[in-house]
Amino acid sequence: MHSDVMSNSGGGPYYWCLRHNRVETDNEVCPASRTMGPYETPAEAEQALTRVAERNEQWDAEDARWTGEKP
After folding, report:
1. β-strand partners of 35
2. Please, which residues have CB within 8 angstroms of residue 65's CB and are 6 or more apart in sequence?
3. CA distances from 24 to 10, 34, 35 (A)
4. Would you say residue 50 has pLDDT above 90?
5. What pLDDT, on a 0 to 100 scale, did the predictor assign at position 10?
6. How far is residue 69 from each of residues 21, 52, 60, 62, measured CA to CA in Å?
7. Other C-beta atoms within 10 Å of 65: how many?
8. DSSP 8-state class, residue 11
9. Alpha carbon distance 42, 22 (integer Å)
């Protein structure tokens, strides 16, 4: 069972839990199929979904340039 507070304040790795929408650590982490990471800091883990969206946008633009379509 997970608590609402990250239990490891001493260091990473850190994961973003897609189920609970929070940072988790090795001490208390959901299965890999429900997490993103590992990340070195809690801040990096918190930004996981933002980074994915930015990368997807970049890749979509690259795909559009490659195929000659407009993004």
Report:
1. 17
2. 71
3. 13, 11, 9
4. yes
5. 56
6. 35, 22, 10, 10
7. 11
8. -
9. 9
What is the CB neighbour count within 10 angstroms for residue 17?
20
Place of tokens 């850190």: 14
Tokens of 42: 């809690």
Angstrom distances, CA of residue 40 to CA of 21, 23, 28, 54, 66: 18, 12, 16, 19, 34
Write the Ramachandran bin of 11: left for phi over 0, alpha for psi from -120 to 50, otherwise beta: left
Q: Among the listed ranges 5-9, 10-14, 23-27, which one has the minimum average pLDDT value?
A: 5-9
Contact 38, 13 (CB under 8 A): yes
Token reading at 20: 């609970």
